[in-house]
Design goal:
It is a multi-pass membrane protein. The chain is an all-alpha fold. It has 2 domains: 22-237, no CATH class; 247-535, no CATH class. Helix content is 80%, strand content 0%. It has helices at residues 2-34, 39-74, 82-114, 120-133, 136-152, 157-181, 196-215, 239-267, 277-311, 315-342, 344-351, 357-371, 374-389, 394-414, 419-449, 454-481, 490-493, 495-519, 523-535. Helix 3 packs antiparallel against helix 4 (120-133), helix 9 runs parallel beside helix 12 and helix 14 packs antiparallel against helix 15. The radius of gyration is 23 Å and the shape is globular.
Length: 540
């Protein structure tokens, strides 16, 4: 079982890594085409809030938290859960289609509210973008259901790899836009740049990618032993049970998304040339990369086993999975936090090689503010999956209420700041609040299941932080020897220079981080060293 979980985790991680690398390429092309600050960039970022908010409500709020446990139960039926799955997919199609229509009605007033500080041209452009992106609601919902069905049947690869197709199609559309309309890496262009063809290439290719990402999963249906048929007989699907479980999760996500929309409105107060929502999303894409590759891959592979252990009332195995996952996540995320803090400016230069030094510096401050919360954000993800496996979604809701209230207070305070400080300050506060949310989640989960290995988790985090501090000092020294981060430094002059510096500094920091952990006999570092030795010729 451990070997199969490890193989599944590696397969998921490889797919996620490939799609995330392509996602970074997509972000680079998008930032080169329309910038990360300014008129077009913020209009497009706000337009994406409509389908992304609804998708998050459906996928995270009503599906992901309950699908794997429910499908695991349904698999015990005589048909292996086939009828249940067909009903579930049909329900997802009908429900998301209806929600898409409602979202279409609400889109114009929502965009007008989010961009209340904008001029009419920017509001209009964002609204048109939003309508092109709305079909993503349907296809993202379908992708989530199909992917979770395949995951529950231990076919992890398609769900992890299909976003690769999404990114490729979107990149092609964006390249076409640059060829026809030129580049605007500093976001200086106004409304006159946008016509129907330009909007279609940017937003239409994004929606086409999402549609392909979802529909390609049907190609793996027979391998899962399934045949899809539309089935409107929703009675017997367990909507009552699912509603009780999903209801609290839906409320949790509804709350956080509502707060997120309010935060977006506050970020939109940023002026021309200042960091706003587009800059926050670009920084967030870099921030979430290690979380997506490592944390989500690891926990996705173990979540089915967690659910099975709960059904079997094997809580010692359940808590062991939580503890080991938390330690592995802490080990990796601490290193990435330290490395990306040291390399914040060169990383943004990698993503925006054509932007001025001023734009790179502006976005890098937002990235640093994000990185404060990487470790608690990833640990919170692990702990929440523990609650989901227990079919307890009520507790995370009340934890989220407290976090959301504090976030709203912070956002209101940020409206009193100079506009150039709003986005970075708000992002930093939200990152810090992840630590409080994570601590509260741990305490309440431990009360639910008993011993949770808190001392082991905390001990590992302490070792990781000490090693990360030493590695960061070493990394900063290497960065300084390579010319630092000034406007004319090697790391800031070009994509090639930034890539070279990032590679050298990362290797140096990894060596120091691992060495210090080995001196402290950290179990994760010792285990990784043992595996590396085993891969060598004659190794055991």
């Amino acid at each position: 079982m451990a070997g199969s979980v490890s193989r599944a985790g590696l397969w998921i991680a490889s797919g996620t890594l490939t799609s995330r690398v392509l996602g970074l390429v997509r972000a680079m092309v998008l930032a080169y085409a329309i910038g990360s600050i300014g008129f077009g960039a913020n209009a497009f970022a706000n337009a994406g809030k409509v389908p992304n908010t609804v998708y998050t409500l459906i996928a995270t709020g009503a599906l992901t938290a309950v699908l794997v446990p429910q499908i695991t139960k349904a698999a015990l039926a005589s048909d292996g859960g086939a009828r249940y799955i067909n009903k579930l997919i049909t329900l997802a199609l009908v429900g998301s289609g209806a929600i898409m229509v409602v979202a279409g009605v609400l889109t114009p007033p929502l965009i007008a509210w989010l961009g209340s500080s904008w001029d009419a041209d920017q509001v209009q452009l964002a609204t048109v973008f939003a309508f092109w992106l709305l079909p993503q609601i349907l296809f993202y919902s379908l992708y989530t259901v199909l992917g979770e069905v395949l995951n529950a049947r231990s076919l992890f690869g398609p769900y992890a790899w299909s976003p690769v197709l999404n990114n490729v199609l979107n990149i092609v559309g964006l390249i076409g836009f640059v060829v026809l309309f030129g580049a605007d890496p500093d976001g200086l262009a106004g409304a006159g740049r946008w016509d129907l063809l330009g909007i279609a290439l940017v937003a239409g290719s994004a929606t086409l990618g999402v549609a392909s990402q979802a529909l390609i999963l049907f190609a793996f249906w027979r391998r899962a032993g399934l045949t899809f048929r539309i089935d409107f007989g929703f009675r017997g699907i367990g909507l009552g049970t699912m509603g009780k479980v999903a209801g609290w999760t839906f409320l949790t996500v509804l709350l956080t998304q509502a707060v997120g929309l309010f935060n977006t409105r506050v970020m939109n107060l940023a002026g021309s040339g200042e960091a706003g929502l587009a800059a926050a999303e670009l920084a967030g894409l870099i921030f979430v990369l290690p979380h997506s590759i490592i944390t989500i891959s690891l926990v996705t592979a173990r979540f089915t086993r967690m659910s099975e252990n709960v059904h079997a009332e094997n809580f010692s195995a359940f808590t062991s999975d939580i503890t080991s996952s938390a330690r592995l996540v802490g080990f990796s995320m601490t290193f990435f936090t330290a490395t990306m803090l040291v390399l914040a400016l060169p990383l943004i230069r990698l993503i925006q090689p054509g932007a001025t030094y001023g734009v790179v510096s502006t976005v890098s401050v937002v990235l640093i503010a994000n990185l404060i919360g990487l470790i608690p954000f990833s640990l919170l993800f692990v702990l929440n999956r523990g609650f989901f496996a227990l079919s307890d979604t009520r507790t995370p809701f009340f934890i989220a209420v407290g976090q959301s209230m504090l976030t709203i207070v912070a956002a209101i305070f940020c409206t009193t700041l100079p506009t150039e400080m709003i986005t970075a300050t708000l992002t930093g506060v939200i990152s810090a609040l992840f630590a409080l949310q994570m601590a509260a989640t741990f305490i309440l989960l431990r009360r639910r299941v008993g011993i949770l290995g808190g001392r082991g988790i905390l001990g590992g985090i302490v070792q990781n932080v000490i090693s990360a501090i030493v590695a960061a000092l070493a990394g900063w020294g290497v960065l300084t020897l390579l010319g630092g981060i000034g406007p004319n430094a090697l790391a800031m002059r070009s994509f090639g220079g930034a890539f070279l510096v990032c590679a050298i500094v990362t290797i140096a920091m990894a060596a120091v981080y691992g060495a210090v952990l080995l001196l402290m006999r950290n179990r994760e570092a010792v285990s990784i060293l043992g595996r590396l030795r085993g891969m060598l010729p004659g190794g055991r």
